[in-house]
Amino acid sequence: MAIAKVSILIPYYNDTAHIEAAIQSAYAQTYPNWEVIVVDDCSPKPEAAALIRSLQQKYGFTLLSPARNGGATRALQLAFEHASGDYISILSQDDLYTPDKLAKAMQAITSEALDAVYFNGAIIGDDYPSTPPKPFETAEVEHAQSSGGCAAVSSLLASNDTHGCLLTQGAVYSHRLYGELSWVREKFILDDYPMSVIVWRDYKVRFYPDVVYLYRHHDNNIHKQYWRWFPARLQVVAELVEPERRLDTLAFYLMNMGEFSMQNRRHDDAARFIAAGMMLADSSGNQKLAMSLFSKLAGKMSRESSQALNSRMHALLGRQSLKGRLVGVMKRILIGLVPVRAWRKQLRKKLAI
């Protein structure tokens, strides 16, 4: 029986520091049947473009060069269109696979007849391997998985910035699934997050806590470009979150922006994001998160900003209170106009007036 082939897709752009290590990790796989396809997305630095060509000659992978820059999602789509594998695996230019990534993934897929599988990853820095990798937390995702696929989707959407343990670098997808979701790469600004949500919602998939990839933290990660990716996250809320959960999910994203702002020492911005998130939060988890973030922020803001924020919060809370009282008065007036006493009684009971 023929062994299924896996296509490893690597979008490449302007990287000279990490790309060879990423390619080496792909070539170090213990799984016997795979191919590597790299798309150079019009790297403007001559040394970066020259490097990837020299690496192609050294390792022999397929190198594609589109006529114009289209971003990582279009690069992945182009790579997929040239992929001959039965399964698809994604590798970022600055990350690494462990040698057993494909072997573990394919064993799980074939033994359970899965459409896709996700494994955990671990964070590394540019000083790796002198500093050991730090695995992503998995407890929440494992608990959600035990509750069913829908619970896992909810966990993806509303907690901990898409969960590092569910990034696409840890996944392997069937060729059929990846092709069926090509529309995601066309529609969404940032495709890996909505892709994972839709895979968990619509396909047979499992998560395992074993670490099979290393995610490199450096200055170009999202925590340094949080404003750039904020519109993409809002698009996910608008397109994928159920209407009754949109505001609470948006509250989480706003507070997450507050955390990113704190990391970048923009404490006044952080306070505004967190305050906005607190006003929208419905769930107890997000309300507790807001209080926790405000506690961390204490003492880091300027005195003037702190006083301005307090005044703004009191004004907001005052308007909310006044609005609630006015709504209550209007309800009582309108119910009083109902001609039948029994109906008025039922309405008061139903509306808790």
UniProtKB/TrEMBL annotation:
Residues 7-133 form the Glycosyltransferase 2-like domain. Gene3D superfamilies: Spore Coat Polysaccharide Biosynthesis Protein SpsA, Chain A. It holds the Pfam family Glycos_transf_2. Keywords: Transferase. One of its GO terms (molecular function) is transferase activity. This is Glycosyltransferase involved in cell wall bisynthesis. It comes from Chitinimonas taiwanensis DSM 18899.
